[in-house]
Amino acid sequence: MKKRILFLFFFSLCLSTNLIYAQIGIGTETPDHSSILDISSTNQGVLFPKVALLSDKDQVTVANPQEGLLVYNTGTGGLKYQGLVCWDGTSWKKINLTATASPAISNLQCENAKMSPALFKAGVPYNGTMTVPYSGGNGGSYLAGSPIISNGYNTGLTATLQAGTLQYGSGELTFTLTGTPLYDSPVPAMFNINFLGHSCSAAVSGVTLGVGLSLTFITSIPATGIADKTLLSSLKTGLPVIDGLRMDLEYNTTTYYRPRIINTNSTSQLISLQSFATQVNEYRSNLNQTVLAGASMQVDNNDAVYWTTSAAEVITANVQVQIVSGVWRWYEMKWWAMQIGTEKVIFMSVIRKA
């Protein structure tokens, strides 16, 4: 009898020892082979210890934490973040808990799409990003999208939506933008975007102004000694250029100058212009004019604007330019130049109206 009891004791001890080093199942008799601890329940969860950490490097509240240790920080101590955190060996890192709701937005704003880097070069491989703003995000996560091929004039580029998480409210979708464009900026690449039931066409062309934003330029040149028909752009750099249209002026004697809009694009542009001058109350209207690549457009009605200080006038031009079929932009351009002492001081500005 003693032998039998002794045998059962050692058998139980061996069995207990094996169980200590085996998998543990709570709520299941068949724990998954990949886990050391498998907790199964249909109506209960796991509650982690709640602590009030003093900082992201706190090793006092939880003494000597091991890498991988999880706790729930209450946010009532010095570390204000509330949620699950993990010790990585040097600091407490939060575990990103994103919304479980299906992603949704209220509006997709393709008209404000932007690209970076800001310029295309024909025949040169491009590798960058395109961002498209949205509003009404609900914090949901979304998967990467399928490649979208550019259409319209500037073909050869592909945009691919990157996976991400929506902001609560307004945010931006990010696309990789790669390929070899057919034309230089600002000839736009157009992409038909479909996202969460919203569709629009995004046109990216390089450096553009947002609605209501402006560019300004101030410079000076000698009052005398400059040959007639000399362009300011041949003397100075940094003149305003928007959608490939450069604001410029042509020297025309010491009394007058000629405002110019020059098409620096590699393709022709369809432009409409209406201008007026403050000094002589003149206006000019020139609608739907095709301006060839490298050509210029007259701005002033009689093409003669005073430098003279007493008669220096502001020339204002409302300019409408067609980017591609169905895509237009409206700019207001201003020239104001006058002689001050031995210099002719030149002011230029452009603001996007729509």
Automatic annotation (TrEMBL):
Lineage: superkingdom: Bacteria
Keywords linked to the UniProt accession: Signal
Signal peptide extent: 1-22
Name of the protein described by the UniProt record: Uncharacterized protein
